[in-house]
Amino acid sequence: MPIVQRSYKFCIEPTHEQRQQLAKEFGCARFVWNKALNLRSAVHKALGETHNYVSLGRLVTEWKREEFPWLAEATAGCLTQALIDQDKAFKNFFEKRAKYPKFKSRHSKQSIRYQLDQRCIDNNYLAGELLKLPKLGAVKVRWSRVPAGTPKMVTLSKDACGRYFVSFACEEVVEALPLTGKVIGLDLGVKDVIAGSDGYKSGNPRHLKKQLRHLKKQQRRLARMQKGSHRRAKQKLKVAKIHAKVAASRADFLHKTTTEIIRNNDVIALEDLNVSGMMKNHCLAGAIGDVGMYEFRRQIEYKAKWYGRQVIYADRWAPTTKTCNECGIVQDKIPLKVRE
Q1: Bridge-based pairing state of the strands 310-314 and 267-271
Q2: Running DSSP on this structure, what letter comes out for residue 226?
Q3: How far apart are the C-alpha atoms of 20 and 22, rounded to whole Å?
Q4: 274 and 154 in a common domain
Q5: Cβ(184)–Cβ(194) under 8 Å?
Q6: pLDDT score at 127
Q7: Radius of gyration in angstroms for the set of CA atoms belonging to the chain, rounded to a whole number
Q8: Is the terminal CB of the chain with fewer CB neighbours within 10 Å at N or C?
């Protein structure tokens, strides 16, 4: 039985006092990130010197004592984790895995990380009941399941809708599913998100398209409102809730579909699609993005690894769509109306 890193994300319900403390935590962590990023960029441009989270951590301590004493109102570990995250961002940039780190805005998603003391983990974390965090105390969590492992880091975030979430990863033992003796080939598309070689078709819920008319109407209202006004803030919240509903519906559909496929089949064959290249087709980009092809493949891969399934990939350049599954003849063109 393999030991895996399983991630959890739960909605939390902080009290009024906890929301005020979280606003301080988010603001201080964002301030430290932006000031450290500005300092790093200026020093490297002027002197060619580099900083890391250790040297910047000493500066944060000096800021608390002299220039910015209000930084002491936040948890020291959250400020340190912000500097560590910035180190990782620069490492990804230098290794050409990401773009140059950007400054953070108070109007976008907010997040902080807590490092739990493993020596007194029972006082910090109570599975299934309450989550205890520094300077926040016991936070009410909507537990949809009880994690089997113990987290080492906890990320607390606030999205554009004003909802608060807590997420963490635990090391857990996952039992492999029993063998079914079935093999399936899956074709990802727009008409049907999944079309299986056994005749299975998932259909396409078109989560974004169902909300698109309502979304356009609310976005037009938002565009006409004066920036900085209270009505614009309320309207921005309405638009964010529509986007959150679409994202949640898509994630729910993909998780249920991939879990069903993993449970019922031992071997899953997928197409090696170039999703980023397909998104450059402006006529189909919206429909392809609404399907979530890359997320589907990602879920199939890690769930297959967890539960002892095998995933194989067809050649990206093989004309699988144009090839007849009975006689093997390859057609020049095959429109949607003649496909099965």
Answers
A1: parallel
A2: P
A3: 5
A4: no
A5: no
A6: 47
A7: 24
A8: C
- DSSP character at residue 217: H
Residue 187 CA to its chain's centroid (Å):
25
Domain limit, last residue, from 151, 173, 195: 173
DSSP of 317-328, one letter per residue? TS-TTTB-TTT-
Count of CA atoms in the C-beta half-sphere (13 A) of 57? 15
Does 210 reside within a domain?
no
Q: In 3D, which of 7, 124, 135 has the Cα closest to residue 78?
A: 135
Q: Any idea what the Cα angle at residue 248 is, between residues 313 and 22, rounded to 5°?
A: 120
**Pair 304, 262: CB distance under 8 Å:** yes
Per the model's pLDDT, the better-predicted residue between 127 and 314 turns out to be 314
Angstrom CA distances, 96 to 4, 82, 85, 88, 275, stand at 28, 21, 17, 12, 20
Whole-prediction pTM: 0.84
Range of the domain at 22: 3-173
Per DSSP, what are the bridge partners of residue 229?
none
CA nearest 15: which of 160, 164, 117? 164
Q: CB under 8 Å to 274, separation ≥6 — which residues?
A: 316
Q: Which two tokens stand for residue 18?
A: 């906890």
Amino acid identity of residue 192, one-letter, is D
At 63, list the tokens.
């800021």
pLDDT digits over 58-87, tens only?
999 999 998 999 999 999 999 999 999 999
For residue 195, what are the β-bridge partners?
187, 201
Based on the domain organization, do 18 and 155 belong to the same domain? yes
Nearest 5°: CA angle at 240, between 141 and 100?
90
Token pair belonging to 86: 């910035």
Q: Output the six-digit token pair for 259.
A: 């879990």
Final residue of a structural domain among 127, 153, 173: 173
The backbone region for 239, taken as left when phi is positive above 0, alpha when psi lies in -120 to 50, beta otherwise, is alpha
Residue of 34, 163, 160 whose CA lies nearest to 107: 160
